[in-house]
Amino acid sequence: MILIIVIVIIFDVSEKIDDFIKNQAPLKEIVLSYYLTFVPYFTNMFSPLFTFIAVVFFTSKIASNTEIVAILSSGISFHRLLRPYLVAATFLALLSFYLANFLIPQTNKIRYDFEDTYIFSKRHNTGRNIHVQNSPGILLYVESFNNDENKGRNFTMEKVSNFELTYKLKSKDVTYDTISGNWEAHNYMITRLEKDQTNYEYGDTISLNLNIEPSDFSTRVKRMDVMNYFQLKDFIDGERIKGSKNIKFYEVERHKRISFPFATLILTIIGASLSSRKVRGGIGLHLAFGILISFTYIIFMQISTVFATFGTLSPFVAVWIPNFIFAILAFFLMRLAPK
Q1: How far is the C-alpha of 134 from the C-alpha of 157, rounded, in Å?
Q2: Fewer CB within 10 Å: N-end or C-end of the chain?
Q3: Is 30 helix (H, G, I), strand (E, B) or coil?
């Protein structure tokens, strides 16, 4: 794992050295605020794979020395033999859960701040045809929005009650006041629809308390990896109320943070069961099969999450189905191994 991280850092330094020099990034910031934050991320990313390889290597070694045969012949069951594996894998899975949901979001925030300061220029956002549900029954629309100026063009606000339109405000543009936190609509027309009559109101400027910020009109997927688990959950609840079209991206991320640590447990059982038998190919054959299975698992998870993000598959099903399938494989191998 240390070797992988060093290789990644070397390639990244060769790619970004010009940006560091051009923007005069301090060496202390480069080491502590940028590259040191790589360590938790890559540790968590590769932990199931390297745990699996370690289990296969160790178990194949003692199997090739006929130690497992001696252990089972002494009356110890195969399930009892797996107990230390499961204890260690549970500890690593809990550590992975903590890294993914609490520590890595903090380190990502530090890394992104560094990138925005010394590597990337400030990003501009000029989204078009943006729909936002501010709260149940209140719908907002802007034809275009510029985050740099906090200004939207051709703004509309509609209020719906019992599936009927009761209020509509149209304005040429809308701007956000950073001091008061309110919005100002210019050259507006208000239509109030009542049972017996329709009333109209015109004006130059009106102040609106929309309870949203300019970033809510952003068309980009927000940085989920800087939110801890509870912040992400609250954020998803708020986006669901607003009717965000990116809700599937956020749901996939939330479920992945919970399901990913289980991969360590599942791959540990598969690795121990697969490599516990002495074979002619020895450690090399076990490692080959083990790496094939682990990469199949990773590819399967990536494919299923793509179907959830861009298709009709539920995010929960997409993220958890690789664990369910490989858990069945682990159970089958665990039952087959003693025989």
Answers
A1: 9
A2: C
A3: helix
| Distances 100 to 36, 96, 267, 294 between C-alpha atoms, Å | 16, 6, 18, 20
- CA dist., res. 295 & res. 322, Å (int): 12
Half-sphere exposure of 322 (CA within 13 A, CB side): 27
pTM above 0.70, yes or no: yes
Confidence (pLDDT) at 121: 57
**Parts of the chain belonging to CATH 2.30.30:** 126-217
- How crowded is the C-beta side of 138, counted as CA atoms within 13 Å? 9
Amino acid of residue 210: L
CATH for 126-217?
2.30.30
Q: Nearest CA to 263 among 326, 306, 335, 315?
A: 326
Regions of the chain short of the pLDDT cut 50: 124
For 46-89, give the DSSP string.
HHHHHHHHHHHHHHHHHHHTTHHHHHHHTT--HHHHHHHHHHHH
Q: What is the rounded distance in angstroms from the CA atom of residue 71 to the CA atom of residue 184? A: 77
